Amino acid sequence: MERIKKIFLTLVVGFLLLSAISLDVSAAKKSSKLSKEAIAEMSDSIDKLTQKIYGRALLSPQDNETLIGIKIKLDNQMLMSSSTELAPLYYKAGNVYKLRDMKPEAIECYQTVLENFSDTALAPKARAALEELGVKVEAPTVSDEEASDDEAI
Q1: Whole-structure pTM over 0.70, yes or no?
Q2: How far is residue 78's CA from residue 98's CA, in Å, rounded to a whole number?
């Protein structure tokens, strides 16, 4: 009888642990995507920073932290999954970095748009911004197999 109780208790504890783990995994998946509100908030923050720069105002340390925080959130989201909603944020962040003469950071943002969101309207703008920054952007090459498929059609 004692042995049956131990087995039953072990099964119950195992079941509870598996349930807890599955809840954590599903919660992590749900929270891995940025909400529309978070995206809108980041967009508004970038717009305010852009207005400050155009108004010749200096950015405060808090403004710098905001920009860095947005970039970190974007990069973390890209590690999870990319969404075309991120393209404007990367492009706008690139513009802010470019206006602040932070060339490497601007290039990184524009390249992210070009590489991950090439089918959006922002890709040609990102390409032009990269070229303006002196980055040579090459058009994607068509592989031999794709070229032969195109010729066969």
Answers
A1: no
A2: 21
Q: Cα–Cα distance between 46 and 92 in angstroms, integer? A: 7
C-alpha 34/C-alpha 18 separation (Å) is 27
HSE of 59 in the Cβ direction (CA atoms, 13 Å)? 21
Helices and strands of the chain, counted as H and E runs:
7, 0
Element (H, E) at 70: helix 61-80
Any idea where the domains of the chain sit in the sequence? 35-132
Range 107-116 average pLDDT? 95
| pLDDT, tens digit, 9 for 90 and up, residues 18-63 | 666 655 444 444 456 788 899 999 999 999 999 988 888 888 889 9
